[in-house]
Amino acid sequence: MARNALGSLLPALQHTANPVLHSPAWLPCRLDRELNAFDADLLHLHWVQGEMLSIEAIGRLHKPLVWTLHDGWAFCGSEHYPDGAEDRRYQQGYHRGNRPPNHHGLDLDRWCWQRKRRHWKRPMQLVCPSRWLASCVERSALLRDWPVRVIPHPLPTDLYRPWPQALARQLFALPAEAPLLLFGAIGGSRDPRKGWDLLAPALQQLAHTQPSLQVVVFGQSEPADPPRLGLPIHYVGALHDNQALALLYSSADVMVVPSRMEALGQTASEAQACGVPVVAFNATGLPDVVEHLRTGYLAAPFDPTDLAAGIRWVLEDDERRSKLGAMARSRAAQLWQPAGIARQYLEVYEQARDAWNG
Fold first, then answer.
1. Do residue 34 and residue 123 come from a single domain?
2. Within a domain: residue 268?
3. Are 182 and 319 found together in one domain?
4. pLDDT above 90 covers what percent of the chain?
5. Which residue, 65, 59, 50, 45, is CA-closest to 116?
């Protein structure tokens, strides 16, 4: 906790319009020594921030390495995602001439990117959960020559499975008969990357055409001043276990993931494993999760009107919605079952080991 608190001091010196987390990974670190001395044939990195490993320490790891990227930090500067689809700095390299005009103070992103370029000399085997994130790696100035493979995140489909909708609604004290739309994100509507501001106008449109629709939000408690969208909104707060999440997903008729940017879209995959169709934008990692018109609907980015149309399309035909949910469950069990993901990782481990020894 102390390292994380110290690490958070530097981002305050950079004034940027990009609201995502920034991680400088700058504190001196000895964990690399322990990892190098550990009796292991290979190291597998995941999310290593919160000052867990410094940029320099990652460069000092001397074993075969596999790194699963959960966001864009590895190929960006200090930011975990680019600042929207128009941000090309990670593709061009970070220099004074391409710093956005609305950035001021310390150019922390450039400093971190230069440290990565200086200390990460030997390519690692990268794994990305979506084709979009892998394409970002391939376009990046920093990692474009590193090997990358797409393997989705595993999902325990024995836990994330359909439950009787009536039971699920009863347990969460939700309306028994009304069509329910589910939206969830850590921080709920407060994270601009999750797209609540795009969902809100879509819901206002649906209030006129689907007046019986009700909304369920998880990931946050009810705000002091709830939005007035013309539809009832139920807030269930944060859920911390798989069983509760699976039950909540099962209570819904449709899950909406209006994110601007997702490495994959875990709430979308979890909902589909529970047999719930998903409506999302046809952007970033979500097309890997949602199969358009077969397991849900992919709306034109980032159009609230088409998002509303997709929600309406899912809800207006009960038989079609049931088929979408069944296909979503079948596809989830096929693509994200842990045993199948583990086999793909075993292949990656062998390739990383052979490349290191070669």
1. yes
2. yes
3. yes
4. 90
5. 59
CA distance 300 to 297: 10
- 231 plus 280 within the same structural domain: yes
In a domain, 160, yes or no: no
Sheet holding 43-45, edge to edge: 43-45, 65-68, 125-128, 148-150
Asked if residue 224 and residue 106 are part of one domain, the reply reads no
Q: Are residues 234 and 175 in the same domain?
A: yes
Contact in structure between 14 and 103 (CB atoms under 8 Å):
yes
Q: Which two tokens stand for residue 121?
A: 């000399």
Instruction: Give the number of C-alpha atoms closer than 13 A to the C-alpha of residue 169, restricted to the C-beta side.
Output: 18
Helices (H), 81-183: 89-92, 108-119, 131-139, 165-171
Kindly state whether residue 256 falls inside one of the protein's structural domains: yes
CA distance 307 to 258: 8
Q: Does residue 175 sit in the same domain as residue 142? A: no
* 308 and 199 within one domain: yes
Tens-digit pLDDT profile for residues 78-93: 999 999 888 999 999 9
Render pLDDT for 273-327 as a digit per residue (tens, 0 to 9). Answer: 999 999 999 999 999 999 999 999 999 999 999 999 999 999 999 999 999 999 9
Range of the domain at 9: 2-153+339-357
Would residue 159 count as lying in a domain? no
- pLDDT confidence tier of residue 224, bands split at 50, 70 and 90: confident
Question: Percentages helix, strand, coil for the chain, rounded to the nearest 5?
Answer: 40, 15, 45
With beta carbons less than 8 A apart as the criterion, state whether 120 and 61 touch: no
173 and 317 fall within a common domain: yes
- Measure the CA angle with vertex 90, ends 187 and 148; round to 5°: 90
Q: What is the mean pLDDT of the chain?
A: 95
pLDDT tens for each residue of 160-200: 999 999 999 999 999 999 999 999 977 656 778 899 999 99
